[in-house]
Amino acid sequence: MSDRANPLFSTAAIGGLANYWRQQFTRFLAGEPWPGALFSDHADYLNECAAIERLFSISGRQALGIHVEGHDFCFTAPRLLTGSWDNPAAGLSAMCGVYQALEKKKSAQSFATRAHEFKKAGASWIVVLDGG
């Protein structure tokens, strides 16, 4: 989001709340070490998570009914990324598809390369690409 303290990295902290390899979405609890420097408070963080998640199809979170005597745990099925809002069966291609849709919507220019260094230059950032 444009109003974040570190917008370059906020998507890694929010959409990166997804473990992309296992397609599992998690959210940090208020008592856990969550990316507090990027948000005004935990509720702001949760609202941002919800905004990102609306782009995807997510399964899971059903209570499993498992109880551990003497403890107050709640066991649920993992929240898995199964697709995107426009392609619910995308599976592992969901993240790529959503990125491409947003890129097209914003008429953004993309490069078939990798960024390997970020440098702060006053109020701007320099992104050094593999190809120079």
Describe the 3D structure.
This protein has 132 residues and is of the alpha+beta class. The protein has one domain. Helix content is 24%, strand content 20%. The chain has three helices and six strands, in the order H-E-E-H-E-E-H-E-E. The strands form two sheets. Strands 1-2-4-3 form a four-stranded antiparallel sheet. It is extended. The mean pLDDT is 76.
Short description:
By secondary structure, the protein is an alpha+beta fold. The protein has three helices and six strands. The chain has one domain.
Strands across the major sheet, in which order?
1-2-4-3
User: Helix/strand/pairing class, anyone?
Assistant: alpha+beta
Distance between the termini: 27 Å
Order of helices and strands: HEEHEEHEE
Roughly how much helix do the residues carry, as a percent range? 10-25%
Name the poorly predicted regions.
Answer: none
Instruction: Please tell me the total number of domains.
Output: 1
> Which sheet architecture does the biggest sheet show?
4 strands, antiparallel
DSSP E strands, number: 6
> Based on CA inertia axes, which overall geometry fits?
extended
Helix segment count? Answer: 3
Task: Please describe the topology of this protein.
Layout: H1 7-14, E1 18-19, E2 24-25, H2 42-53, E3 56-59, E4 79-84, H3 94-105, E5 115-121, E6 124-129
Antiparallel strand pairs: 1-2, 2-4, 3-4, 5-6
Observed structural traits:
four-stranded antiparallel beta sheet, extended, 20% strand, two-stranded antiparallel sheet, 3 helices, 132 residues
